[in-house]
Amino acid sequence: MKQEYKLLTPGPLTTTATVKEAMLVDHCTWDDDYKRITQDIRAKLLEIAGASGQDYTSILMQGSGSFGVESVISSVLDSEDCLLILSNGAYGQRLGEIAAAHKLNFVLYEQAYNQQPDVHEVSDLLRVHPEISHIAMVHSETTTGMLNDLEPFAELCKEKDLYFIVDAMSSFGGIEIDVTGLDIDYLISSANKCLQGVPGFSFIIAKKSSLEVSRGKADTLSLDLHAQYDGMFDGKWRFTSPTHVVIAFEQALKEFEAEGGIPARHARYAGNMGILIENFKEIGLMSYLTEDNQGPFIATFHYPRDNFDFKDMYAFIKERGYAIYPGKLNNMDTFRIGVIGEIYPEDIKLLTAVMKEYFSK
Fold first, then answer.
1. DSSP label at 166?
2. What's this model's pTM, rounded to 2 decimal places?
3. How far is CA 148 from CA 111, 117, 233, in A?
4. Alpha carbon of 121 to those of 89, 99, 156, 274: distances in Å?
5. Do 6-11+261-359 and 26-257 have matching folds?
């Protein structure tokens, strides 16, 4: 018998029945109706970003969020450029892995996982490395749940005339990001995060002028961001697109708008997170991050005791309708709870009851 459970994860996440049902229709990628859907999605993403179509464009890219990040990194830098990566988690580290795989010049600035990047230290690095041309960072670091402050580094990029790349995988659509005001050159996110679609493609909000300057730098075929952009002028993807995923995302965007857009979705997620942190504290589960660094999307919790068996707890919770995430910290034992997707305060309260039942065994 099929077991159904909700995903308390940072993505993939629990979607509505109507988003899933949208995938029951087959589409031809050359069909004008399907190309119109692609163009409508691109326009809606710019609207959510608060970005003008005159200055920015949106580009859809097959694959997970990491495919989108790699598309940007491998398409906008070449041997003449140097990337400064700000890392305080595994996804910042992944930026470095991508740069290394493409043999790009980069400098990795590493901060403790429970600390924000320090703009003064980064400014000092820029003086030591005048060759740096781009800065890349993760907005919501799902390793811990840290919500990094973009503004000081956006200002630094403006001051030093550097390109600014933001991995907003688990934050875009769930919190206001002033793409234009922050002068972000490339923002990357995914269909299956705060916009509550299903996995299958990522997307890039790109400043047109920056995109044109970096034309010709791509060192891959399928991840060539500029070629993808050129091919999408009429809504046609260069290679076979995940048609069912795209149709599901169209429905997810309608539901996003009906809920009230970013303000309503952020309020729901933040409400979920507030209940989660408070309820878990009451049953002796302590958050890894301080309140001022905790984002509204996913939280990391310490193991309650030395002999704690996460797999046993995971199985217990799953049998009762929820799936959670293991921790991603190398130096301590933790687990993670995500509160995005079709998740409501009642789910967090039910999870708390399940956890109480488990610890009372």
1. E
2. 0.96
3. 12, 8, 34
4. 17, 21, 12, 32
5. no
Topology of 26-257 in CATH?
Aspartate Aminotransferase; domain 2 (3.40.640)
| Strands (E) located in the chain | 6-7, 56-62, 83-87, 106-110, 134-138, 140-141, 146-147, 163-167, 186-190, 201-207, 298-302, 322-323, 325-326, 334-338
pLDDT 10s digits, 226-245: 999 999 999 999 999 999 99
Alpha-carbon distance 141 to 88, whole Å? 8
Of 269, 248, 222, 87, residue with least CA distance to 167: 87
| Domain 6-11+261-359: which CATH number of 3.30.70.2690, 3.40.190.290, 3.90.1150.10, 3.30.1490.190 | 3.90.1150.10
Question: Is 75 within 8 Å of 218 (Cβ atoms)?
Answer: yes
Cis peptide before 242 (omega within 30 of 0): no
Is 127 annotated for ligand binding? no
Across 111-172, the runs of DSSP E, i.e. the strands, are 134-138, 140-141, 146-147, 163-167
pLDDT tens-place string over residues 255-299: 999 999 999 999 999 999 999 999 999 999 999 999 999 999 999
User: CA-CA distances (angstroms) from residue 111 to 139, 156, 293?
Assistant: 14, 18, 14
Strand partners, 58: 205
Give dist(CA 17, CA 234) in Å, integer. Answer: 31
Mean pLDDT of all residues in 193-215: 97
Q: Structural domain boundaries of the chain?
A: 6-11+261-359, 26-257
Placement of tokens 């010709």 in the chain: 216
